[in-house]
Each structure stands twice: as C-alpha cells, then as structure tokens.
Specification:
Pathway: Amino-acid biosynthesis; L-methionine biosynthesis via de novo pathway; O-acetyl-L-homoserine from L-homoserine: step 1/1. With about 350 residues, this protein is an alpha/beta fold. It folds into two domains: about 240 residues, Alpha/Beta hydrolase fold, catalytic domain (Rossmann fold, 3-Layer(aba) Sandwich); about 90 residues, Rna Polymerase Sigma Factor, Chain: A (Orthogonal Bundle), CATH 1.10.1740. About 35% of the residues lie in helices and about 15% in strands. The protein is built from twelve helices and twelve strands. The strands form three sheets. Strands 1-4-6-5-9-10-11-12 form an eight-stranded mixed β-sheet, with helices on both faces. Helix 2 crosses helix 3 and helix 5 crosses helix 7. The chain starts with a strand and ends in a 9-residue tail after the last helix.
Length: about 350
C-alpha cells in the first residue's frame, strides 16, 4: 500500500467545542478507483492499529485476498489522536510551539469520522462500496453511516457496539489507572507513562482474549513448575511489545474516545439513531468475545433496518476479528452476494 499524508491548514472543530488549529492525516491507499467509484473499500482501524492495514489485517487485504488492490481501491486512514502520524498528543501545538502531551483535547469517535470526511473530500470520493471495521473501527464505521447516510453502500460491523458498555469503560479506566501509577506519567516527554502503559496493555489483553484462550495457549506443561509460567511471560511480552510502538498519551486519549461512543447522543436515543442507518448492513459477532459480547451485535442487527447478523467461531475472543480472516471473508462474500442462509438468534 502507498502511504500518504494530507495537511489540512484550517481549524478543525471538535465535538467538545475545542479547536485544533490544523490537522495532519496519514493514510494508506492501494488500487485504483473505477470511474463509477464502485470498488472503494474503506477500512477503519481499531485502538492501537494504524493505516498499514495490509500488515495488521493481512488475512483480508492483499493480492488474492478478500480485498485485493487488483480489483479494489482500499483506503485506511490513521485515526485522530493516534500515534502513527495523524494529529495526536505528540504533535506540535501552534499556540505554544510545543508538543501537546497532556494538553491534547479530548476527541470522540465522531471527531475521528470528521477527519475521515476531510480526507474523503480531498480524495474526491462520492461513494464507498464497503466500510468495514472491528471494535473501535466498527464504532467509527457506524458513526460514519449515520453522519453520511447515503455515502456507504455496504456497512460491515465486527465485534462492536452502539454505545460503549459500563464493562468496557471499567476495563479502560483500570488501564488508565495503571498509567497514572507510573511516576513518569506527569512528565512532558514522549516516553512518559511507558511502564504504566505496559501494565495497561496486560489488563487489556485479558479482555481481548478469554479463559479458554489462555488455557489452550499459555498453560504450563511442566508439572514441577512453580514460577515463571508461560502466562506470566506472555503478559510481559505483550506489554513490552506495545511500549516499543505506541505512546501512553495516545492510549489515554483513544480509550477515552471509546468510552464516549454513543450513537444516541443528540439523536434522541440509541434505537432512534440505529433506525437512521441507510446502508446495507452486516453485523458479525464473536461467540467467545467477553469485551464486546454478542448481545451488543445482536442489538445492532435488531435495530438497524434489514441488517443481517452472523456469528463467527474463535478461540481468541475479541481478537478473533483480527485473526479469523477466512470466516470473515466467507460471511462478507455471502453478504454482498445475498447468499446467506436465514439466521436465527
């Protein structure tokens, strides 16, 4: 995929009423749009991912895959507030000529979609064949379908919800509490809070996976072992892995944005909002997902007009949306070709 950057040198009004003096957008694009723009696939990424969608969703994107640049024009934009180039806490504040750090304003999922809109207009895109996302990516896709009800032909929502749950908010708050325990968190430097973020990631991983995942992948086979268990080293490894590629300021901002996700805000109610979706919609739940349980996806499918709901099987819980590419591809193809069996739930 080709990586590009758009600089919008004009104020961007956030949902909170605060203003960013300018916005930089980093995005990736692969393939060429047809004259009719009937092959555009816009992928919305999740919490700590980036616009390099062929890397983190390689099972779905690439030559011979579900989304193939030989047939599709595939776009993924790094989200507002993130670590990977789009304006975020490590960007320069023009008012102070210093990095924002703790002073970066709160952003919402709607703000992320607003930045996607800036990019869409810049690219001259009038129609999106498919907008797809999982988790926070699904929250963005759903908001976009409400903000621009005639833009997206096919909407695919995976392991996501209409409003973030008290359960999800509690997990996010626990992670932020971990960051706050890091004595460096108060400092204005790019690596502030890294030790706390390592613990935060360990907490998050427990919600991304489940009991069966750990039993099958991290159990010790040594009956004499009393310490340094595989599950312990795995948590350490995953925390270290994130610290090497992300920053705690973005982690804080994006988790807060997830907490504030509520499609009913300003639209009467969640149900009233969902009833406004015009896109043909596929909702995918993961049976073992404890963070975004399938009841949340069934709720979406119940209240979005003519939406279709399917479940996929995965050992990996919420992370199944990143892993189960074959099942997602099958469900998607059945969806666009109208070959689903009648779903009962």
């Amino acid at each position: 995929m080709e990586h590009k950057q758009l600089n919008v040198e004009q104020p961007f009004l956030l949902e909170s009423g605060q203003v960013l003096s300018r916005v930089q957008i980093v995005y990736s694009i692969a393939g060429t749009p047809t004259a009719a723009q009937d092959n555009i696939i816009w992928i919305c990424h999740a919490l700590t991912a980036n616009s390099n969608v062929a890397d983190w969703w390689s099972g779905l994107v690439g030559e011979g895959k579900l989304f193939d640049p030989d047939r599709h024009c595939i776009i993924c934009a790094n989200i507002l507030g993130s670590h990977y180039g789009t304006t975020g806490p490590l960007a320069m504040d023009l008012a102070t000529q210093e990095r924002y750090y703790h002073n970066f304003p709160a952003v919402s999922v709607r703000d992320m979609v607003g930045v996607h809109e800036l990019l869409r207009k810049h690219l001259g895109i009038r129609k999106i064949h498919t907008c797809i996302g999982g988790s926070l990516g699904g929250q963005q896709a759903l908001e976009w379908a409400l903000i621009q009800p005639h833009l997206i032909e096919n909407l695919v929502l995976i392991a996501t919800n209409a409003q973030h749950s008290a359960w999800g908010i509690a997990f996010n708050e626990s992670q932020r509490m971990a960051i706050q325990t890091d004595p460096t968190w108060k400092e204005r430097r790019p690596d502030a809070g890294h030790a706390g973020m390592k613990t935060a990631r360990s907490i998050a991983l427990l919600s991304y996976r489940n009991y069966e995942t750990y039993m099958k992948t991290q159990s010790s086979k040594d009956t004499d072992q009393t310490d340094n268990f595989p599950a312990s080293s795995y948590q350490q490894y995953q925390g270290d892995k994130l610290v090497k590629r992300f920053n705690a300021f973005s982690y804080w901002i994006l988790s807060k944005a997830m907490d504030s996700h509520h499609v009913g805000r300003g639209r009467g109610s969640v149900v009233q909002a969902l009833q406004q979706v015009k896109s043909k919609t596929l909702v995918l739940g993961i049976r073992t997902d404890i963070l975004f349980p399938v009841e949340e996806q069934k709720f979406l499918a119940t209240h979005i007009p003519d939406a279709h709901y399917e479940e996929i099987e995965s050992l990996y819980g919420h992370d199944g949306f990143l892993i189960e590419a074959d099942q997602i591809s099958q469900r998607y193809n059945e969806f666009v070709n109208d070959t689903f069996r009648i779903s009962q739930y």
